[in-house]
Specification:
alpha+beta; three-stranded antiparallel beta sheet; about 30% helix; Creatine Amidinohydrolase; globular; 15 helices; five-stranded mixed beta sheet; 2 domains
Amino acid sequence: MTDDARATSADPELSPAETGEPAAQPANSNRATPWPSTFAEYIGDRWADRTEISPPERAQAAFAAERRQRLADAFPGKRIVVRAGERAVRANDTDYPFRADSAFSWLTGWASDAEPGSILVLEPLGDGHAATLYFPPAAGRDTDEFYANPAIGEFWIGARPTLAQVSVDLGLATADVASFTAGDDDLDAATDDDLARTLSELRLVKDDYEIGQMRLAVEATARGFDDIVADLPGIQRESRGERRIEGIFNTRARIEGNAVGYETIAAAGAHACILHWTRNDGAVVPGDLILIDAGVELDSLYTADITRTIPVNGRFTEVQRQVYEAVREAADAAFAIVRPGIRFGDIHDEAMKVIAAKVAEWGLVDASAEVLLGADDQRHRRYMVHGTSHHLGIDVHDCAKARRELYRDGVLEPGMVFTIEPGLYFQPDDLTVPEEFRGIGVRIEDDIVVTADGAENLSAGIPRTADEVETWLATGTD
């Protein structure tokens, strides 16, 4: 037998006691004590019978079935393979927490509880496809796997579900992954660009289940922001207050969901000018702003993505308020045009009109807004180099493999969910701006769903205006 912690017994029908061989060892076998046959016999004996409990079919199952049908319709007569993926090694024999491939979860409804190594197969059958979910089922106590294999053993990571339980739970036929055989003509989402692109594009419009999950993710995220505001006095006492913010929010994410949807950005002072600041090792100092970009990922894997920028001591300075309200004006202008039928890229263009106007009004660039917005100018982008919106859902940057003509140049439809997140960032060493602007970074980000005749801001309940933020801080830290 192998001593690799990620391998199972070569002969799962026989226990170590029956073969007379020592049982499998953890990967670091130089540290392990060999299992003698007497131990193997003892640990495999006298376990109570288990009653297999069939779970009810989960709410997402019917929606996942409809999604599989849409995918199958796009590839008639083709065998489609979508894999959950495997655990990724973090260091030696420790792994990162497993998160199933997003397309796999979208098609099966198996999310934070999905088993590594699982494979969904849509097999051509007549005029349609038959779906089968392959995964490694639980091993019996007549094998050594349950105690001797740290990667999948029950003593190490808990019991795995049975084929029958998962079948009822997801409304899918199931089979042992050992019986899966890849075909030469398979369309495998891991390697087939056309299939991967189609899966992204099918997710552009969310169904009712997905929109419901997005609402819940936003609500949980709002509570995470409230947790941060309530602890601002303690945050300021830490030498690495940014990291305390990260920890507070991560606690909320673990209580109410699976994890954070992405690494939390807790950027105080000039760190707010670094768009993807996730080191989070700085102090949170009165007089500065703190930009917090965070989202709770639910057990369904749907995530919010929200940013608020708040004054650490509870009150904006005159210049901070000036910058903040300019960003809010850009966000409001972008939101105001959202409705079915417009081009997705128009949202960004509308926000940038406000940004260009403010840059011109403040004299940061010696040109009018009209000149700045010209295709051959764009100098205002120095202070906001990122886009205003991205699709959002089971991935924080959802549908990323969709074609440009369906994404940036695509037409909005009811059920699309995306962010609106303009910002202004004045680097601390930027000599093009007055000294009082330097080191100020502001972003306001909300999660938007397109409705039949307009749009809804799912995160509107989290304070947005400068006055609302100051009231929030005054009441939230008592």
